Amino acid sequence: MKTQEDMAGLIHPLAAKYLRTERLPHKACPGCGIGQVVHCTLNVCEDLNLNADNTVWVQGVGCSSRISYTLWKGDNIDAHHGRILTVATGMKMSRPDLNFICFTGDGDCCSIGGNHFLHACRRNLDVTTLMFNNSIYGMTGGQVAPTSPVGAKTPTTPYGNMEDPMDTVNVAIAAGAAYVARWRSTDFKQLTNSIKKGIQTKGFSFIEILVPCPTQYGRYVLGTSNPIEVVQWYKDHTVTLKKSEKMSPEELKGKFLLGEFAHNEDRTGIVERYWDAVKKIQDGRK
User: Fold this and answer.
1) Alpha carbon distance, N-terminus to C-terminus of the chain
2) C-alpha distances in angstroms, 91 versus 4, 96, 171, 188?
3) Sheet strand arrangement including 238-240
4) What pairing do the DSSP bridges indicate for beta strands 179-184 and 238-240?
5) What is the average pLDDT value for the chain, to the nearest integer?
6) pLDDT tens digits, one per residue of 207-232
7) In this structure, what DSSP letter does residue 151 have?
8) Which of 183, 186, 228, 249 has the highest CB neighbour count under 10 A?
9) How many other C-beta atoms lie within 10 A of the C-beta of residue 51?
10) Contact 149, 165 (CB under 8 A)
11) Is the pTM of this model over 0.85?
12) Residues in CB range of 183: below 8 A, 6 or more apart
């Protein structure tokens, strides 16, 4: 176990600036992509001058949340399982001047939190949501998730998953999200740019991130706990939107599409409409 003295020379300057370094190293499993996403987020914080005075991190329950609620130096809210966007709604409505970055997992967002996810998109809530999708319940034992592929063998589906996985990108678009994208955690440049664009977009921004999970998804579904092999699996099963245009349906079968799927700032959201109404009421009383 490394001591704080051992860690001192290994800590990235961004981590030292924004994170509680006394709590490093983080608790993610070896080979997990969560740390990569946090690094991308910290780069965006640096570029946009997001800090403890103007930004709140909100997280639910799951692997995706353990890093943010233990490390971010500023205010953060650890919401009940699935209620992350409900909590973020109340906070953004009361403090529209602050930036809210929401960290959630595929189980947290799409299963118990699915209803809140739909309404955050519908209301066009002005927050940025990063959904870590490892296609399984990573923290609680590797149970089947709403994003697990058909046939996936997990502790709760020993004979194979019989349900089709939820395509969260298409759900977000249909429900009205302003900005929608999907990347792998290893797509560092693209993911950083998407997080930045999501924060700058007025309205609900949803970014799905395919995060390798050697401990659960790799072991149960892919048959390997080797991080390199799991990352390679994602590389083999993903394709960019641009490349997909030249591929047949047969070639695209079983592939995740990567890229920006929607960017629409023409529709106002619940926060803007609410405060416009408050101002009209206040002006009418003068």
Assistant:
1) 64
2) 35, 8, 24, 29
3) 76-78, 55-59, 99-105, 128-133, 205-210, 179-184, 256-263, 238-240
4) unpaired
5) 91
6) 999 999 999 999 999 999 999 999 99
7) T
8) 183
9) 14
10) yes
11) yes
12) 190, 191, 194, 207, 208, 209, 210, 258, 259
Tally of CA atoms within 13 A in the half-sphere of 156 that contains its CB:
14
pLDDT band of residue 77 (cuts 50, 70, 90) is confident
Say if residues 112 and 191 touch (Cβ distance below 8 Å). no
What's the half-sphere exposure (Cβ side, CA atoms, 13 Å) at 41?
30
Spatial neighbors of 111 by CB under 8 A, at least 6 apart, are: 82, 145, 146
184 token code pair: 């792998």
Q: At 53, which amino acid appears?
A: D
**Domain extent listing, the chain:** 28-285
Superfamily covering domain 28-285: Thiamin diphosphate (ThDP)-binding fold, Pyr/PP domains (3.40.50.970)
